[in-house]
Predict the structure.
Amino acid sequence: MQINSSYLLSLTTFFYLGAAAVYLLYWIFRLHKVGILATIVTVAGFILETAGIALRWKESYALGYGHAPLSNLYESLIFFSWVTILVYLFVEFKTKNRVIGAFATPFACLAMAYASFSPNVQDSIQPLIPALQSNWLIAHVITCFLGYASFAVACGFGIMYLIKGDSKGEGLLGSLPSKRVLDELMHQTIIFGFLWLTVGIITGAVWANQAWGTYWSWDPKETWSLITWFVYATALHARFVRGWAGKKIAYLSIIGFISVIFTYFGVNFLLSGLHSYGSS
Amino acid sequence: MKSKKVEAKSNIILNFFSSVKLAITLFILLAITSIIGTVLPQGESLQFYLENFGPTYFKIIKGLELYDTYHSWWYLSLLGLFSINLIVCTIRRLPYTLKLYRRDALDLSLDDLTRRPFKKVWKLGRAGTDETLKSRLKGVFASIGGKIRSRSNVQGGELYLIEKGKWNYWGVYFIHVSILVIFAGAVFGSFTGFKGRIMLLEGETTDHALKRDEAGNITRIPLDFSIKCDKFRVEFYPNGAPKLFQSDLAIIKDGKEVKKKSILVNDPLTYEGVTFYQSSYESLPEIEVKITSPDGKQRRFRLSAFEKAMWPETGLVIGLIKYLPNVHGAPAARVYIGDPSGNGDALWLLKGHDKEYRIGDSTFRISLVKGGEKYMTGLQVKKDPGVWIVWLGCIMLIAGFGVVFWVPHERYWLWIGNNPREGLEVVLAGQTTKNKIAFEKRFKKIEKEIEKITGEA
């Protein structure tokens, strides 16, 4: 079997699947060694994925196209899962809490599986069409996906918050971080994601202005990114309204992520517009 | 009595316009209504909506201007209300924040100090002041970094303060004002700028752009100079995807060529605030025909689509109707040929096969010399003096986030003095607006070093 980037990347899917399973086991049995194993599997998958992305970049040069692997749906899905794992590992490092992994790694795994195994997603390296030939491509995609990945992790926190409910003490739900901690983590990741989404929208505007002469043209992708922005703006301001903290913000973090997914896929598949190159 | 009522009423109105609840309501309304324009086709003719959605929905679409959702009266009103919300909220919060900002962190009593989130008290249990101890403690405190301010005679002791990131208070203002700046830039640009299109054949020059309004009327936008397309190039990758669209443009002012540039999709040309973007192209057929008159005179004509040429001496008029690059292996063209009075005929010419055409008694021989394509470049033309205001707003927005997110307002206090009852005492206190974990680490480090010094003393 020829080792190419697609092979490495589809292999990564199984690492993340394994990681999600081991994190789940850790959550159920609370064995420290299982937790360590989960982290090791995640980090191994992350290294493999990084190698896959680097190899793909190299392959694109070998083909004579020479561009960063951020130009179509396949590559963006790969990058999305990469950033999600990066953001999650950072959160794990900061909070020393591994249960969160059971709620974050599935997002990365799903993105990888979809990229690698869906017949709708082409994994071949394609050359850049003129509209994409810009240095803004890298800045725009990286900032947007930092936002998307943070929102995926925040959505994980939101789900944890909701299933935690009012349970206390021991048991599966009891071993989740406390609601106060979850609320704080949710808020922090949403702020982080919101910052990057904002920068992503701005870099997109600068780029659009350079390529087409309009920084904002209400194209469906732009509009949906703005809708997402409004949802998270709501979540950030909800903290200042009495009775809105906690549960409502948890719901918003889930609604916000649904909006992210729609911005990402729905617009490509269901609506047409300037961003159509993201759909193949 | 009455004026109080009025005041109360105006307060209710002000409270409404500055409330977070209004902000949240607007976010949700804008999020939901923005969906409409992404699902319903925008900018089509009214006829289109009537045919596709039926008379009932058509009424709604027309009344609410859903054919141009984002410029409809109600959507713009929502954005206007959003701006008012931002302005009123900013103005109302300003005095409060200013008070917080101006408050001197040295205006604290010992009791206040010990109520800070981070604090540590050392009771050395002996009287008197020890200058060397004081300077060593001060040295440790200074290692936090930043300017030290101090105040003596604070309840019998000296209070030192290190304060960082005080302008964190203004981060949120930066963000809110920046959004208003972006709106202002967009509005300013829409009143002072223009947007149009130019289609230019290779070799062609124009001094105006064309603009199509919603009703489909085309208006001319004159430019203060002329623009010429010298050449257009298009290249493709082996898989058929486009690789390059390039127009070689020249700006001509007062009969002189003042600027030249080859523009690409991501690399436009700007002259006197007007920017030309590569946006599309068309390829038009171009043929060359040779006509031989009855007396043996020959003349060649280059004909582009929709172009007519005349041979004045013979009165012959010829124009291109259609060009096919490959008919049985040779190019073919359908041409119009006739006399100036309007009598004429359409003929098919095939390369290598001459055709004859008669006007009265004269017979002309016509042959297709060659056929090919000529490009017409499509340029987007824009002038937007407001764009720099928009960029300024964007930079402010990012800077505001940077401040809110990464610049915590941190304060460290050190008090050294004599407690009337218990003798020499040292108090270390700290407070931060965010990242408490990192702050605690630094605080503990200072605490440890002070512990060492007080332990020795």
In short: Chain A has a mean pLDDT of 89.
